[in-house]
Design goal:
33% strand; six-stranded mixed sheet; Gyrase A, domain 2; Elongation Factor Tu (Ef-tu), domain 3; alpha+beta; 10 helices
Length: 376
């Protein structure tokens, strides 16, 4: 190993579950400044299918956890995001985006209104952007308090058996509704649990004090229905679910409307505005788009990767792939990307350029695999 490679390895941060990953034979890779497991011994396809069939356990401790608090915290956060935060009920969670003045997406995040008389909002942001996100909040909402929860791990338990598995350790968690949050006691340890995730399956995100994270994970893994899942399967699961990945499907040039995220902007916010880029979003909603994110099914077995050109039948370039790969649940390659609006209708036949060769692709509705969130 070169001196540079050694230095890079030594500078990577480690999550509280690092030793567990190594003990379980994970292949560790650099990701967002952390050493993270990309897969375990079973492999990405086995991990993916296990999550769809039973329950997968993901270490997402590299993501940013913080609490924003102070008078009118919800109203003030609305200066930076397009979602209705004021109308968010206690213990409820909402997906939204930090936008720049041009309406581009700085990052996407989850916001939860925490119970209690004081206004407190829990924020979960992407790992690669968390330092910039926290600086963005401190600079623009300097009259509010931002507590970064860097002493807590975060793990996701996803899959059709997630509720039954977690309820054995944390009774009552099965009653938590989709996109809701509650605090639980586990053997004297306070857990923050939301019924959410990024796989399209039912499941939970569980915030655990770092010192207790490995023991809690081990207790979950003692159940034969639970398997550790790495970044590789996490990506293929979210792609099948049609979910955006920041820095790939969405970025500072992309608006939520182009990305198919208009559902995350409630009626009051569309009408009132008052957030960065509001005029662009209002214009796109009223006048239509010049491009749109679409799902793509590919003929054959060759996957299309990020950056691959999408062309019309006459060879003209009309878009690019932003995420692509093999879909284990479907047994074929899929992708998503942006195309000119005249080619965005489901059923449109395109070509994707893979290694210089045009391959047939068809625009389809997303998600590729139906969501199975708990709606009860």
């Amino acid at each position: 190993m070169s001196d540079l490679a050694t230095a890079q390895k030594e500078t990577l941060a480690r999550t509280p579950l690092h030793a567990l990953h190594v003990a379980e034979g994970a292949r560790m890779v650099p990701f967002a400044g952390y050493a993270m497991p990309v897969q375990y011994k079973a492999g990405i396809i086995a991990e993916h299918l296990h999550t769809r069939e039973k329950a997968g356990l993901f270490d997402v401790s590299h993501m940013g956890q913080a609490v924003l608090s102070g008078p009118d915290a919800a109203r003030k956060l609305e200066r930076l995001v397009p979602a209705d935060i004021i109308g968010l009920a206690s213990g409820r969670q909402r997906y939204t985006q930090f936008l720049n003045e041009a309406g581009g997406i700085i990052d996407d995040l989850m916001v939860t209104r925490l119970p209690g008389e004081d206004e407190r909002l829990e924020l979960i942001v992407n790992a690669a952007n968390k330092e910039a996100d926290f600086a963005h909040l401190r600079a623009r909402l300097s009259d509010l308090k931002l507590d970064v929860l860097d002493d807590r791990a975060l793990m996701a338990l996803q899959g059709p058996k997630a509720a039954a598995v977690l309820a054995k350790l944390v009774p009552g968690v099965e009653t938590v509704a989709f996109m809701s949050w509650r605090a639980f006691d586990w053997e004297g340890t306070e857990l923050f649990i939301s019924r959410s995730g990024y796989t399209g399956e039912d499941g939970y995100e569980i915030s655990v004090p770092g010192a207790q994270a490995e023991e809690f994970a081990a207790r979950l893994l003692a159940n034969r229905d639970v398997m550790l899942i790495g970044l590789g399967a996490r990506d293929s699961l979210r792609l099948e679910a049609g979910l955006c990945l920041h820095g790939h499907d969405i970025d500072t040039q992309t608006s939520p409307i182009e990305a198919g995220l208009a559902w995350s902007i409630q009626k009051r916010r569309r009408q009132e505005g008052g957030f960065p880029g509001a005029e662009r979003l209002k214009r796109e909603l009223a006048d239509g788009l010049t491009r749109k994110r679409v799902g793509l099914e590919l003929a054959g077995k060759a996957p299309a990767r990020e950056g691959a050109e999408l062309t019309a039948q006459d060879g003209r370039v009309i878009g690019r792939v932003t995420s692509g790969g093999f879909a284990p649940s479907l047994g074929r390659p899929i992708a998503c990307g942006y195309v000119e609006r005249d080619f965005a209708a489901p059923g449109s036949d395109l070509n994707v350029i893979v290694r210089g060769t045009p391959l047939a692709a068809r625009v389809v509705q997303m998600p590729f695999v139906p969501h199975r969130y708990f709606r009860g």
